[in-house]
Amino acid sequence: MATNNEAVVEIAQTAGKFASSIVLQADNKYIDVKSILGLFTTLVNTQSYELHVHGSDAEEAKAAVAAVFAKYDLNVKVVAE
């Protein structure tokens, strides 16, 4: 479980560096990736995720956040808007 905690913190910190809106879709829930609490409740129960990124630095944000998911072997699909 420690790995999940590290992943949550790193994902939220990485997302926080960007101005873009970064939302994780897990099942039928949408979670602001900058919210550590939202991530904690979601990453525990769900196996696959979709990342929705909107904003001025969206491309950089997608790459950075997706890299953190990959680092922790979390299955995320970046959705092209």
From TrEMBL:
SUPFAM superfamilies: HPr-like. It comes from the Bacteria. Residues 10-70 form the HPr domain. This is HPr domain-containing protein. It comes from Paenibacillus segetis.
